[in-house]
Every structure is written in C-alpha cells, then in structure tokens.
C-alpha cells in the first residue's frame, strides 16, 4: 500500500454519489422545444431560402432564429447552422443594422439576439471553406459533452476567411445592440445550437 | 445622492466584508485571516486580526446583536469568534465536509448559521448547550454541485441557496428546540428539516452567484453568470410560482444583490459598479447605474497641457487609460445593506477584488 501515490487517486470516482456522473439533462430548462430531425431542419431551410429570395431578409433571419433546433440532434443543428450562415451572408453590410434592429427590437427580440450570438460563435468555430459547417465535423474537435459551445478554432483557407469576416461584422453590430451580456450568455446557456 | 465613501484598505482581493451593527467595526476577509478595522473619523484603521484558518477565508459575517463573528475557509473549517477580555476567542465548528467551505451567514435569529460548501451540501449549524459545542446538520438532497451563495428568510427557518448546478433553491432548515414553528407562507405550511420549498432554473442557466429574499420574504431574487437577474413570486406550497421574471441585461455578470423594499433590487458584479433594478410582479427592468460618473472619484480629470506632456514623456501616451471610471477598480464580490429600516435601504456597502470597501448612499 505504501507504493500508492495518494495524490493521484481520483477520489470522485470512489464516491458512490460521484459528480463524475453529473446528469447534464437536469440543467436544461423545461421550456426546451421538441426534438427536431435533420429533415425538419431542411424543410425550414427551404422556407427561409424562399423568404430570402423574395427580398425579405428580415423575415428570413427571424424565421431562422425562431426555429432554431435547440432540442434537436447534431445533424439537425448542423443543417440549421448552414441555413443561418447563408442568411447572414445574403444580407448586405449596409442593411445589417436595419435588419438587426427589426429582428432584435420586437417582442422576444432579446431571445433572438442571444440565439444569433450563439450562431455567430458556432459559425466562427466551425467555418472551413465554401462548404461552411457541413465539412466541419471532420476537422474541428468534438465539443465536450455539450458543456461549451466554443470549440477549437479552425481558420480555413479560401471561402472560410470571407465567411469569418461576415460573421465578425455581424458580431460587431450585434454587440452594439445587446452588449457583452449576450456573449456571456453564449457561454452559460445549455440550450446549444 | 451623496458621493460614496471609499475605504481603500489594501491591494489584495476582499472575498467578503461585514460591518458590526454600530458600524464601528468592519471585518474583512483577506487571504488566510480576517482583519478587523475600527472606524476613526472617516477612516478605518486596522485594529485586530483573527488568525486560525489555514487556507483562504471565503466568507465572514458579524451577528448584529450578539457581535459574534463567524468565518469559513477553504480549509473546510468554520470558526465562531467571541470577544473576551483577552481578545477574540475562536470556537471550531464541526462542519463534516470534505471540500472547501464557500459561504457563511447568520440567521436573523442568530441562533443558527448556514455554511455552503463544495461538498454539495449546506451545513446548518447551531449551538448545543449540553455538549457545549456547535454542531451541524446537513442539507443535501437535490444539490448537485458547489453552493456559491446563501440567504436567510426573515423567519430564520427558510434558507435560499445558489449553486453551480445553475439552480436556486429554497430549503427549510427547521431545527427542533432551536426554532419556533414558522407562520405558514406561500413557501410552505409544514416545514420539517430539508423540505424543498422551491427549485428554480433560468433558461440561460448560469452559475448562481447571488440570492436574496425580499424584506417580506415573499419573493426571491437571484443572479447568475448569465448576466441576468431573476425574481420569483411563489404562489402556494407544491405549486409552480405565481410569476418568475427574468431580466437579461447587456452587462457583465452580477455577483451579489440586495433588496431595497419590495420593488427595488441593487446588484453589482463584474462591471465594477452597482446597478438598480425596479419592478413588481408584472415586470422588472434595469433602471441604471448608481454611479455618478461625471463627478466620480475615478472620473476623467481636467487634462492640463503639462499633464499631457508628462504622460507622453513617462508612458508614451497622452492619457492614463488604466483607470476605470467607476469607484471600484475591479469586480465587486459582495453587496450588503449598510443602513436599513423596515426593509428600506438608505445606504449599502460593496467590496471587491480591488481591496476597496465602498459605502453608497441612495
């Protein structure tokens, strides 16, 4: 017994009520929407695209943020991330402030602003080339059990840089509107996008 | 609003502070010791040190009537300090915890105190005359992570706790022989020890950093690391609350909060200045900062040409930009009522990482 280095024993593993087995689901609020699948997300993507083509950028962004698959699986979340980024890229820089005020100013706007901030951070963490988030899985590290939405950064070449600059522009405009509180909430919120 | 009184005590963080009821003594947790300051004129001077803890002291509280001081520390111990003719005498309290103690507060009756800890439990401690020592009972059941903050209901039975599992909870800490049976309230009617009277979770789910009961005890406010303040109005025992209002702010997270009457909350945290919230059951909003930035102590001074050239010479810049415009120069850890009558706070004190204790007049 004298050979054991007691400092290296993980005491939590020996505890019957170990915090290692912390049930993460208990941290999700009861108001979480129904789980969605990737096909649901794809349907929404089509609706959003139609709105965007019709020139209603504000409506497209609002629809995309209101239908975020907070309770969906990873695949649905990826499809929806691509949709949101497509919308963000489809809005001209001169229109950004006006669209943001429309989307985040109305009723429930604070929720939408927080949701958009989550997508901006997720987009920045997984952008890689013109495929956007679709190819992210193979290159960016896995998230750690959903505790954090901030993953290893992966600065892709080519289209990635352009997407990053779009997201950074949105980020700047959004922080002007919602302050640092919104960034902090991206880190604490367990309802990941 | 009068200018705040600033007491810059030292250059290290203050984990917690507490004033005696006559406001002449100030206890401050500094590293492994608690320092006692006496008021002299409008300054506080160091008068005594409470030494005994072996690790960082995390919390300190002076009982307003008995004058006893309770401290707790990362060394997993709590001491009750009593003043004797030969100085302050510590009594060890058996907390029976295997992680750091994080927070301690006397109950309003001063018969008990509660210690939160990293061992996922709260020790409710009371004095047992027969054996002549402080013993503790554990509140344990649904707590899944470290307790960061505690607050007592005015009836000394209900206890609110905030935790890093993002839940704010209300427990009964009723101890037979110590407490008198409390009046039934919206929180519950029969309240045996470890009754869970409420369990609340925010949508954005940050670690809870501060909790407080309203002066009547019929509402609970908590603030978390998601930069929001949530106010809960319970309806009846075992029922969902009548209203649960969340104010998500554009600020950095708030660490501590107090009520001023039933319709106002004062909170401070990582933005280094206190903020005022107001509202009722129908809605709450952020009113604004309590700091008067135009004439604040750290505010921008008139820059003379001499000053400008001196700065350029010494530091290569025209202005000192390492000083915040707020009175506190770093995160505020604790907000406490300094002067209150019937729940109306006329002044409050804050302490923070910058080693300052500030008394604000509303």
TrEMBL record, chain A:
Pfam families: P16-Arc. The keyword Cytoplasm applies. One of its GO terms (cellular component) is Arp2/3 protein complex. Residues 126-140 have a biased composition (Low complexity). Residues 126-155 are annotated as: Disordered. Its main location: cytoplasm. Functions as component of the Arp2/3 complex which is involved in regulation of actin polymerization and together with an activating nucleation-promoting factor (NPF) mediates the formation of branched actin networks. Arp2/3 complex plays a critical role in the control of cell morphogenesis via the modulation of cell polarity development. This is Actin-related protein 2/3 complex subunit 5. It comes from Penicillium atrosanguineum.
Automatic annotation (TrEMBL), chain B:
The keyword Thylakoid does not apply. PROSITE patterns: WD_REPEATS_2, WD_REPEATS_REGION. GO terms for molecular function: actin filament binding. WD repeats lie at residues 50-82. It is found in: Cytoplasm, Cytoskeleton, Actin patch. Belongs to the WD repeat ARPC1 family. This is Actin-related protein 2/3 complex subunit. It comes from Penicillium atrosanguineum. The lineage of its organism: Eukaryota, Fungi, Dikarya, Ascomycota, Pezizomycotina.
